[in-house]
Amino acid sequence: MVVKASKAERKSSYDTKLCSLLDIYSQILIVAADNVGSNQLQNIRKGLRGESVVLMGKNTMMKRSIRAHAEKTGSTAFLSLVPLLVGNVGLIFTKGDLKEVSDEVAKYKVGAPARVGLIAPIDVVVPPGNTGLDPSQTSFFQVLNIPTKINKGTVEIITPVELIKKGEKVGSSEAALLSKLLIRPFSYGLVVLSVYDNGSVFSPEVLHLTDDDLMVKFASGISMVASLSMALTYPTLAAAPHMFINAYKNVLAVAVETPYSFTYAETVKEYLKDPSKFAAAVAAPVAAAAAPAADAKKEEVKEPEEESDDDQPIFGLFDDE
């Protein structure tokens, strides 16, 4: 006869397991597990097996184990997980690439029917077409103001209808209609809520940022720093190029309006006295760039080669024509 472990023994075993995982892993995904069944969760565990471990449990037990681990080891980094353990959540410990693990978790979604009282995670649109239902079922469509017609003894939906909007509760009529149409509009799986990486906690959207996105954000930050520095007349590395250019413009403006001059100002003064020189200076590089292209075109156009007598067939004296 198998003796079941007591409640205290189960708590102790869970505490030991969680603390050991905290010692081994430094990367954790905090995931929501709403509407995720046991079979689906088991498939996720199999899919992540090798470099990741999925651990579910009560929030109070997880918080208690994390605090106990912090007191025991003296490391307070994992305490940042405690405020995130709200609702039906779990932890995925991993040593792999966080983005790849997050994408792998997102693959395991299972279609689910629209049950009464559920909050719709997406818009539900009923497509037009034959429903296969007999005319006696038209009452469902009339209640929901769905335009229909009878075609060959069955109910046919004329136009696509937005039955449920995202964020709305599923009503009994909507649930009954979708069930009759065999439509399972929702899909559920583990949803990554937050990411823990070596003491830092951030949003999962960060995992999907590309190098181009980072460059854009970095450039935007530099632009803001430069703008603030210019407004406060406080020199920074970001504002230095703009300050030098503005100073050069000021000095050049003074040189143009006064007898004072310097090397670069002389060229500008010459252009102002005779604008045709500026036009010639601009046209020269354009012409220089166009010359190689013209030469290349000439080389492509070749004269046809003359046929030599050597290419003509030689007939002997006794050869037939």
Automatic annotation (TrEMBL):
Ranges for region Disordered: 293-321
InterPro entries with a match to the protein in the record: Ribosomal_protein_uL10, Ribosomal_uL10, Ribosomal_uL10-like_insert, Ribosomal_uL10-like_insert_sf, Ribosomal_uL10-like_sf, uL10_eukaryotes
GO terms under cellular component: cytosolic large ribosomal subunit
A Pfam match: Ribosomal_60s
Bias type Acidic residues, positions: 302-321
Taxonomic superkingdom: Eukaryota
GO molecular function: large ribosomal subunit rRNA binding; structural constituent of ribosome
One GO BP: cytoplasmic translation
Gene3D superfamilies found in the cross-reference section: 3.30.70.1730, 3.90.105.20
Residue ranges annotated for the Large ribosomal subunit protein uL10-like insertion domain, each copy included: 114-183
Keyword Ribosomal protein: yes
Key words, A-Z: Ribonucleoprotein, Ribosomal protein
Similarity comment text for this entry: Belongs to the universal ribosomal protein uL10 family.
Function according to Swiss-Prot or TrEMBL: Ribosomal protein P0 is the functional equivalent of E.coli protein L10.
Subunit structure: P0 forms a pentameric complex by interaction with dimers of P1 and P2.
Protein name: 60S acidic ribosomal protein P0
